Fold these 2 entries.
Entry 1:
Amino acid sequence: MAKQKLSFVCQNCGNVTSRWQGKCEACGEWNTIIEENTAGGIGGGPQRGSLRKGKPVALLPLSGELEEAPRIRAGIAEFDRATGGGIVRGSAILIGGDPGIGKSTLLMQAAAGLSRSGNRVVYVSGEEAVAQVRLRAQRLKAAETDVQLMAETNVEDILATLATDRRPDLVIIDSIQTLWSDLADSAPGTVTQVRSGVQALVRYAKSSGAAVILVGHVTKDGQIAGPRVVEHMVDAVLYFEGEGGHHFRILRTVKNRFGPTDEIGVFEMGDSGLREVANPSELFLGERNAKAPGAAVFAGMEGTRPVLVEIQALVAPTSLGTPRRAVVGWDSARLAMVLAVLEAHCGVRLGQHDVYLNVAGGYRISEPAADLAVAAALVSSLSGMALPSDCVYFGEISLSGAVRPVAHAAQRIKEAEKLGFAQSVLPQAAAEGQKMREGITHEVESLPDLVARVAG
Ligand code: TYD
Ligand code: MG
């Protein structure tokens, strides 16, 4: 019998304390700590009577040839790109996202694609009954494929079933929050259960050579253990994101032991499932009103891929004592920095103005290279003068007001030219050899240069 050991575990970050607290000391979240019996779960394990000896092997095989990791591809280009060129056999992948964002839809389509190319795929659904999964598959035109379904939530049962059948190439577990193991005493969805379930499935992936995809809901209230607590246990972590009101979704790689991170796959949610978006820039710039003041096009990069998006700013006189700063799709701390640099080095006073900043289409930018486009949009809105509609902006702004070069200038310019842009405003240091072939390249050295250009 495992010894009873009660601990208090934060459902957000997994931190263990010996007594209950309202606020987790490790991650600062409130009301996320619940009591769990962690005997054998966290850090524990069955005691072994005898020790088993292993044998180390050479890092490089004698022949000196390194094999490329064997991958299986879904035939959905955006999905395969995000996984780093296909799913590596024997690896465990976590796909996280808000409930209802389309994780099950994406994975059913990927399962159908993999099955069509001759892979054996088992889809384990703990959230929906087999009949419901079938209905969805019919809607996604995936029903005629050879995907095997299983409605099961007990980890030991899942592993036993997988062991009796022909070895699958891919197992999809939807979702980790429904998993429960006989070996842990806590309720399903708690950190202890999710961890021990994921641990067993990762072990299965390594020993059998089948790839395992784990679906995890991202939860903000912290009542159910989120994907964060298992991120370090898996080989790759992808997040499926999108804004509520918008129909496009982005599959973003944040960790990948077998490929590049920062890659994205772009999809559009429609009536018959997710459709690939091969050229995201066209989508993000689709509904642009180029003649309005306060809009600037940023030439960004997502991993190896250039993406053009419109940044919209609205600067309006405030009626409040403390002016409002609201940002959607960008970092509010960076906006504060750009505003401070505009005020200190360019004499642009915004202390009496509300500032709203929005990245069009519900897209999120994390690159500092967007600074220059944000500054251009802000000055354009304040001065009421629209920016040239055929111009793109990129460059990082430093606290001294200097405009610093950013990586991949040539690729950003190439994408802009492809979409019909004829002018670019970019850091001076980046402009060497990176000029627009047909159009005009404007080099700016500092933020005052840009303000002079925008405000005329
Ligand atoms: P789902 O894949 O169930 O989300 P998750 O598994 O991440 O919780 O997707 C749910 C949403 O997607 C739901 O609101 C309906 C919508 N949807 C479509 O718009 N078109 C479709 O073809 C499908 C299957 C779902
Ligand atoms: Mg689902």
Note: The radius of gyration is 26 Å.
Entry 2:
Amino acid sequence: MSTSKKAARLLGRRNGPNRAGGMTVLVAGGAGFIGSHLCDRLVQRGHRVICVDNLYTGRLDNVRPLLNHPDFVFIEHDVRDRLVVAEPVERVYNLACAASPRHYQNDPIGTMNTCVVGAHNLLELAREKSARILQASTSEVYGDPEQHPQREDYVGHVNPIGPRACYDEGKRAAETLFFDYHRLYGLPIKVARIFNTYGPRMLENDGRVVSNFIVQALRNEPITIYGDGSQTRSFCYVDDLLFGLELLMESPLTVTGPCNLGNPQEVTICDIARLILAQTESASTLDFRPLPIDDPKRRRPVIDRALELLGWRPRAPLDAGLRATIGYFAMKLSAPEDGMRAAAKDTRDRPPRCTPRLAAATTSDSLVH
Ligand code: NAD
Ligand code: UDP
């Protein structure tokens, strides 16, 4: 069977006979960059979406067009606290965790607890609801890899006491919890190891390379290259990633992962700077700065497993994805609003907030799917 037919067949299952009107899907971290696109997509597909987020790095603006939709509910909640949901839930996506090194290192103990305690609370919820649960894990579980490219059976090379460890080890422990829930309770789990993903709705001051370079280029400010820029990453456009996440969630119960989801096109950090400078026609210069501690030197996913089990591979070319992302930031910079600030503080003390279920349209930045 061709890979695209396999993918279509997997997603077709979602419209199975026992699901009149779609499923109820809980998206933890649903107001963030990836999570908000996922909420859009799930609502568009006819599902009811419960978005749970503490707005640490997420923004209400990301889901504002959904707030009045009859099938969308926003709950301001920290996943480190137990979550009680009165209604049935069939799917849980756990995306709750700051993904940018700047933000996850800003509150390292909070990050570790979000990864571990947050995952535990969501696993308990999934168990109570007999729901499938997907963990947004990361290529960071491979650390600064000694094997290249990275396959899922590589167990990684992580420094457990460095500044990235709160995230890397937190995500590794979360994977452990997922597999123990699967072994002990037969809980249907899916673990996606996501590689660097970029696109519209990244935070302007996120510190991640794509958003940093684009904003710097658009402002004609120096492009901050850490180290000599020869380190590599493999960048996946958000639209491709979302399709992979959905396919993994709807794959047969025997498919647990871990499953790499990323774009195998590997580029150096200098390459990405050059591409962005060319597309923005920027006058920015290059500003070389020290490489952060434990910064991985190379990263590229082997995606054979995703291709074989899900029929998935990324389709958006880097230049097209960058063009869409540059367009987004150009628009944001010309009309800045509150949502562009980083949420770098702990929001646990805020009272919980729930949106009423009203009506509205959704947004789409889709390039390919
Ligand atoms: P993001 O920071 O934009 O989104 C994370 C969301 O989680 C935010 O809305 C944030 O407010 C929320 N959150 C953080 N801590 C929380 C808590 N304790 N309780 C409730 N909500 C909380 O990041 P993203 O890029 O959208 O990443 C989403 C997920 O994907 C993360 O789990 C991340 O680890 C994973 N991931 C992302 C990438 C990437 O390149 N973007 C790569 C690998 C893995
Ligand atoms: N990077 C850079 N300049 C920046 C931001 C990041 O050179 O302004 C480098 C960073 O050191 C790393 C790569 O780009 O080698 C990717 O960084 P990012 O924070 O986006 O993701 P991660 O390191 O988590 O893969």
Note: Residues 192 and 245 are 7 Å apart (CA to CA).
